[in-house]
């Protein structure tokens, strides 16, 4: 299920998260596609980790904003996330995470709330459970990696 709201309809903390994703988008390195994406990942300790997409002349080596934020967070010892805001500009369209980012998010929070932010201030509220139903996650594995 998804709903559309204005940034101003959210509590101040979520407003800031949405605006942080736009700020992160401004840092994008996207000389090939010109498609800037930003992400702001809310951690359970209240901190926010931002990420942007980073392209490469070898196209397959590009990394998405969502995975950048997750990798930064994990490298800082954070693995418990409460929500993520993702911003991009496709005019009237909302831009959700790609399949790889959905799977990456599912590793840590298979039902994470997702706020898709447009530059005009509209936000589509959704969740990973909706975008990637019945995701493959560590919780679904029935074997022990340590034995």
- Give the % helix: 25-40%
Number of spatially distinct domains: 1
Q: For the residues shown, what is the average pLDDT?
A: 94
Spatial gap, N to C terminus: 39 Å
Which structural class fits the helix and strand makeup? Answer: alpha+beta
Question: Strand order, biggest sheet?
Answer: 1-6-5-4-2-3
Number of helices: 4
What gross morphology would you assign?
A: globular
Q: What summary fits the major beta sheet?
A: 6 strands, mixed
CATH class bucket: Alpha Beta
Please write the string of helix (H) and strand (E) elements.
EHEEHEHEEH
- Low-pLDDT ranges: none
Strand runs, count: 6
Annotation keywords:
single chain, alpha+beta, Cytidine Deaminase, domain 2, 6-stranded mixed β-sheet, 6 strands
Structural notes for this entry:
Strand 2 (38-43) and strand 3 form a beta hairpin. The model has no long low-confidence stretch (mean pLDDT 94). The chain has helices spanning 12-25, 65-75, 99-108, 128-131; strands spanning 3-6, 38-43, 48-52, 81-87, 113-117, 122-127. The chain contains 4 helices and 6 strands, in the order E-H-E-E-H-E-H-E-E-H. The protein has one domain: Cytidine Deaminase, domain 2. The chain has a 6-stranded mixed sheet with strand order 1-6-5-4-2-3.
């Amino acid at each position: 299920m998804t709903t559309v709201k204005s940034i101003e309809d959210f509590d101040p903390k979520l407003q800031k998260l949405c605006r942080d994703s736009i700020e992160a988008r401004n840092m994008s390195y996207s000389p090939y596609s010109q498609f800037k994406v930003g992400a702001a990942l809310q951690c359970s300790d209240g901190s926010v980790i931002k990420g942007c997409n980073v392209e490469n002349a070898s196209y397959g080596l590009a990394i998405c904003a969502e995975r950048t934020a997750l990798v930064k967070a994990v490298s800082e010892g954070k693995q418990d996330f409460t929500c993520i805001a993702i911003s991009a500009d496709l005019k009237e369209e909302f831009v959700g995470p790609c399949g790889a980012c959905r799977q990456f998010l599912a590793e840590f929070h298979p039902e994470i709330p997702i706020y898709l932010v447009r530059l005009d201030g509209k936000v589509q509220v959704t969740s990973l459970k909706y975008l990637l139903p019945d995701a493959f996650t560590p919780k679904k594995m029935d074997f022990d990696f340590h034995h």
